[in-house]
Amino acid sequence: xxxxxxxxxxxxxxxxxxxxxxxxxxxxxxxxxxxxxxxxxxxxxxxxxxxxxxxxxxxxxxxxxxxxxxxxxxxxxxxxxxxxxxxxxxxxxxxxxxxxxxxxxxxxxxxxxxxxxxxxxxxxxxxxxxxxxxxxxxxxxxxxxxxxxxxxxxxxxxxxxxxxxxxxxxxxxxxxxxxxxxxxxxxxxxxxxxxxxxxxxxxxxxxxxxxxxxxxxxxxxxxxxxxxxxxxxxxxxxxxxxxxxxxxxxxxxxxxxxxxxxxxxxxxx
Length: 269
Hints:
The protein is mainly alpha-helical. 71% of the residues lie in helices and 0% in strands.
């Protein structure tokens, strides 16, 4: 349900290890080139190879550094010793999603679900299937819904169903599913955004703008909401309002390049 996060380039390592590691992606660093805390974790985990807890600390540290590939390698080491551990397979699948390895993530989730069909693993798999336009997404979402785990999980199942319908061009069903998601959780930002995208792509710009206005009313620090509201306002010819909201989006998230580019373009006119 979340956006992909690019591999982090670790400029901070220049201060820790000297200029030779500047701008090198974390996964390409050797253990000796890692920050001191991670080097110590490598040493400790290798000294006590039978300690899953130490190995998991190393996994989390590598993941925080942006070295998801190396973290996956550590998870493989844990799985070789305990292939029936649900948590290991599930954690590996999350790391694989971070590296955009959808096939690998689904493979790991299948193993996790065979061991223990936990709702979080079912939902994670359903979300990936929805993006692949695979009807398995709906089956898994219904399976979780049948567990009756409360409004939070109900919202997730409706959202994933909406994503499947949106990706397969079933716009009305998608909007209905996103509305059901919002009814279960009024603060489910992703459902509002997906609904707004559907209206915008269908050239219902006024309707889309109303959705994005709701987003920034509920969460006035949500940069994407301001960016998409500005896009609607620009499409409607409201250039002054669009500039204000592009600027607000950039202030909230300077990394939102599209907002910065749109702002620069409009300010030149």
